[in-house]
Amino acid sequence: MRRKFRVLLLAAALPFMIATVLLAVRPAAAAGMTRVTNFGNNPTGLNMYIYVPVNVAPRPALLVLVHYCGGSAGGIFNGNGHDYVTAADRYGFIIVLPEATRSGNCFDVSTPAALQRNGGSDSTGIMSMVAYARANHPIDASRIVVSGFSSGAMMTNVLAAQYPDVFAAASAFSGVPAGCFATTNGSLWNSQCSGGTIIRTAQQWGDTARAMYPGYTGRYPRMQLWHGTTDTTIAYPNFGEAVKQWTNLNGLGQTPAFTDHPQSNWTRTRYGSTGTQATVEGISIGGVGHQLPMSGQLAYAVAFLGLDGAGTPTSPTPTSPGPTTSTGATTTLVGAASGRCLDVPASSATNGTQPQLWDCHGAANQQWTLDGRSLRTLGKCLDAPLNATAGAKVQLWDCNGGLNQQWNLNADGTVRDARSGLCLDVDRAATANGSKVILWTCTAAANQRWSRR
After folding, report:
1. What CATH number does residue 379 fall under?
2. 150 is annotated as an active-site residue
3. 342 DSSP β-pair partners
4. Given the residues 150, 151, 171, 194, the one annotated as active site
5. Together in a domain, 294 and 359
6. How far apart are CA 114 and CA 124, in angstroms?
C-alpha cells in the first residue's frame, strides 16, 4: 500500500516541482497566506491557511482550494494554484487552503467517516474552515466554491456532494466521482477506482453521492471536471464516470448541450446550459497525463466558478469563425456586462492612452473603424504592448501595421489580440464609467464580450 502512495506522490508532485522552479520569475503576491489555529471542529488535525488579498471585495466570494497528495497549502499557493491567487488579487475574493497532515499528505475521501456529512473526517474540518471564514469576513454566501487537484479534486467532489447547500460550484482537476474511492478496511487507497475499473450507471453514481447527505432534496452545485486522456495515476475513465454523477445529481441527461474545442487538444462538453457557467462542464485534454492544471487553465475555472464577477450563465460560446476583416466600417463596441461603450478618455490621441468604459454617446472617441484587422479611432490604432501578458493595458498608438495592432472580432463577442492571443477585458469585471480596459486570458466571460452597434 505504501508503494501505491509513493507512486501517486511522485506523479502528483512532479508538475508542481516544475511549476515551483518556473515561479522564481513570477512577481510575488501582494499579500501572503496566514495560518489560522483554533478554527473549530477539526477531528483529523488539518492545518488551515487563509489568503485575504490587499484589495478585498466588499462582499467577497470564497474559494476553498485543496492540494494534491504529497502537497501542502504553500505548495499549491505558490505552484500550479498560483493563478487563483493572481485572480484573487484582481477580483478581491478570499481563499481558504486546507492542509493534510497525515503521512503522505493525502486527503481522506475513502473511509466511512469521510463519506458522510459531518462524519468526523477531513471534510468536517474543512467545513469548520469555511465557517471560520464566514464568521470573520463578509463572505457572499451565494459565491462559496471549491477547487482541487488530484487528491484535492477527489475532495472537491466529496465536499460538493456532502454540502450542496453550501457550495455554489466546483472545479476538479484529475479526480474521481464522489464515493468512488470508498474503502472499508481503513486504507485511503482504492486501486479499482484509481485504475478506472469502477463503472456504474448515472443513477447509481447519483445515489452514491446522495447517500452522503440523506434526505436532502435541494439543488446540487454546478460542476466543472478536467482530465488528461493519458492519465495513468487516476485513469481517464473516471472522467466519464464523474460526468455521469454530476449530470444525474443535476437532473440532466448524458447528451451534451454544447461541444467545442477551445484548444486543439481540448474537447469541452457542456450539459444543461451552454454558456461559461454551464450546469456541468467536462474538459478532456488529449495526450496529457496526471499533470493538471496546466498553464492558462485556471482562467477557465475562475470564469466557470463565477469568481470573476461575471454573474449569471452566459449565452452559447460557438467556435470562432476567424477574424473580422471589414474595411472602412465604423462601429461602437458595447460591453456585455456593463452596456457601456469602449471609450477614449477625454478624446486624447496621445500615444499610450488607455481606453475605458463610458456611457454610450456616439461621439468620435467612441467610434472605431475596422480597417482590415485594425481598430482605429482619433487617427490612432488600438494597440497591445509588445510582449504583453495578462493584465497589460491596451492603448492607443501610432498605426504601424504590427501584429499587436491586429484584432480578431470573434463570433462569441470576444476581441482577441493577434499577437498575444489575449482578449479585451474590463479590469476586475467592473461596469462603472471610467473602468479600465486591459488584456486578459480569454474566457468569454461577460466582461470580455463586446457587441457592435
Report:
1. 2.80.10.50
2. yes
3. 357
4. 150
5. no
6. 8
**Could you tell me the residue range of the domain that residue 356 belongs to?**
329-452
pLDDT tens per residue, range 1-51:
444 444 454 444 444 433 333 333 333 333 699 999 999 999 999 999 999
Q: Is 139 left (phi over 0), alpha (psi -120 to 50) or beta?
A: beta
User: 108-163 pLDDT, tens per residue?
Assistant: 999 999 999 999 999 999 999 999 999 999 999 999 999 999 999 999 999 999 99
The answer to whether the CB of 424 falls within 8 A of the CB of 343 is no
Q: Which three cell numbers stand for residue 410?
A: 470573434
Q: Do residues 347 and 299 share a domain?
A: no
Residues 93 and 170 in one domain: yes
Residue 314, in any domain of the structure: no
Backbone torsions φ then ψ of 222, nearest 5 degrees: -70, 145
Residue 320 lies in a domain: no
Q: Do 296 and 418 fall into the same domain?
A: no
Q: What angle, 0 to 180 degrees and rounded to 10, lies between the N-to-C axes of helices 202-210 and 237-249?
A: 70
pLDDT at 319 over 50: no
Closest by alpha carbon to 80, among 26, 43, 33, 3? 26
pLDDT at 328: 59
For residue 393, the SS3 value is strand
Domain co-membership, 193 together with 268: yes
The pTM (predicted TM-score) of the whole model is 0.69
| Cα–Cα distance measured from residue 376 to residue 330, given in angstroms and rounded to the nearest whole number | 9
Q: State the total domains in the chain.
A: 2
Do residues 94 and 31 share a domain?
yes
> What's the gap between Cα 323 and its chain centre?
26
* pLDDT tens by residue, 54-104: 999 999 999 999 999 999 999 999 999 999 999 999 999 999 999 999 999
pLDDT digits (tens, 9 = 90+) for 217-270: 999 999 999 999 999 999 999 999 999 999 999 999 999 999 999 999 999 999
Task: Decide if 323 is inside a domain.
Answer: no
Closest CA to 169 of 361, 313, 365: 313
Same domain, 333 and 301: no
Residue 301 lies in a domain: yes
Q: Give the angle 237-266-406 at the CA atoms, nearest 5°.
A: 170
Per the DSSP assignment, residues forming a β-bridge with 426 are: 437
All three cell numbers of 168, joined, read 455554489
Mean pLDDT of 366-394: 87
Q: Which amino acid is at 402?
A: G
Q: Are residues 164 and 235 in the same domain?
A: yes
Residue-by-residue DSSP string for 203-252 = HHHHHHHHTTSTT--S---EEEEEEETT-TTTTTHHHHHHHHHHHHHTT-
CATH (domain of 120): 3.40.50.1820
Residues near 319 by Cβ (< 8 Å), separated by ≥ 6?
260, 261, 411
The predicted pLDDT at position 66 comes to 98
